[in-house]
Write a structure and sequence with these properties.
Elements: H1 6-43, H2 49-62, H3 71-84, H4 91-94, H5 99-108, H6 112-125, H7 129-137, H8 140-147, H9 164-167, H10 170-175, H11 186-202, E1 206-217, E2 220-230, E3 235-242, H12 248-264, E4 274-280, E5 285-290, H13 297-306, H14 310-330
Parallel strand pairs: 3-4
Antiparallel strand pairs: 1-2, 2-3, 4-5
Helix pairs in contact: 1-3, 2-3, 5-6, 5-7, 11-14
């Protein structure tokens, strides 16, 4: 880079980083204040679980463009506030990391000492949420305390130019009413878009709901590749596209998503949600249905009659991946 301009580039990087930090701190402040408000109302026996759900629906009705205020997330805000309200020294720390990082820490860490450890770790090491999850799963806190209980083993780093690794959080984008970023590769995004178009072309019964549809289970967020509503079957249909060999756990994951949809998204007059798993590796294409165990044999037969034929989807998978591979080869 031309040395004459590096100072200007550094100014841009620093200002951008500061802007992201400011927005994130404001979001965490908001969640803290909402959590405190709900906590106080419940403590005074003025509110119950149904009221929090009504609040979520009221926000959605009055401000339909505002996201991130489902009843589940409102309960998370209450839990967040109650976790840290008696530990004022941690208040600045929770505002220096993203909401998703906070969710992972206050839901997975048992003691306040462990929470403090990982709050500092994320701030100093600019950990992504995946890296944070991995460190907690590997008992990094316990191993560090056993190895050296008197000092924190992380050294302060200079400003990480890729600060978005910490703050590239869907909740910030929801807060600012900006398009949600997708973490999957450009190839995966392209394949999903093509599969979405193909499914819509199969018949007028499929209505597109969302790509990367977020479902909340406990204090974790999960994303369904493609979600549709089928007018004939009167149910939600989730599609998961896996660019690798079929594994039973893929089907287990999809069933997990369907349970979340039926519990939190499906309306009373709708039928149980169904899923379609599409797997493609270099040797084969596998298409599997995921159906609720509560369905009667008659309903299962009806579902399969109106769903896209497996062979047709296998053929489309083959075309999609071969088309992408030949396109990449020609570049």
């Amino acid at each position: 880079m031309d040395n004459r301009f590096t100072d200007i580039v550094n100014l841009i990087i620093n200002s951008r980083a500061n802007a992201i930090k400011t927005v994130n701190a404001e979001l965490i402040n908001l969640y803290w204040n909402i959590g405190e408000y709900i906590s106080e109302k419940i403590l005074q026996s003025e509110w119950g679980q149904s009221v929090v759900k009504e609040l979520s629906e009221f926000i959605q009705t009055k401000e339909p463009d505002i996201k991130g205020f489902s009843d589940k997330n409102l309960w998370r805000m209450k839990q967040f506030y109650e976790t840290y309200k008696d530990f004022p020294k941690l208040s600045p720390l929770v505002r220096q990391i993203s909401w998703t990082h906070n969710l992972i820490i206050f839901s997975r860490c048992k003691s306040i000492e462990e929470k403090e450890f990982y709050l500092k770790l994320v701030k100093k090491e600019s950990y992504s949420k995946r890296e944070l999850d991995r460190q907690i799963s590997s008992s990094f806190f316990e191993r560090t305390m056993i190895g050296n209980s008197n000092s924190f083993p992380i050294t302060e780093k200079e400003l990480d130019q890729d600060i978005t690794k910490i703050f590239k959080d869907t909740y910030i984008f929801d807060f600012l009413n900006l398009p949600e970023p997708h973490n999957e590769s450009d190839l995966q995004k392209g394949l999903l878009q093509q599969m979405k178009n193909f499914i819509l072309e199969l018949g007028k019964d499929f209505l597109f709901v969302s790509q990367e549809y977020k479902v909340q289970v406990g204090n974790s967020d999960f994303y369904i590749d493609l979600l549709f509503f089928h007018r004939g079957l009167q149910c939600l249909v989730a599609f998961e596209l896996k660019a690798d060999k079929f594994r039973p756990e893929h089907l287990g994951q999809l069933n997990f998503y369907l349970e979340a949809l039926d519990r939190d998204v499906k309306r009373k007059n709708e039928n149980p949600s169904i899923g379609m798993l599409l797997c493609k590796d270099k040797d084969s294409e596998v298409v599997e249905y995921a159906l609720s165990r509560s369905l009667s044999p008659t309903m299962i037969s009806e579902y399969k009659t109106q769903l896209p034929d497996k062979k047709l989807l296998q053929q489309k998978l083959h075309e999609l991946f071969d088309g992408e591979n030949s396109h990449q080869s020609s570049e």
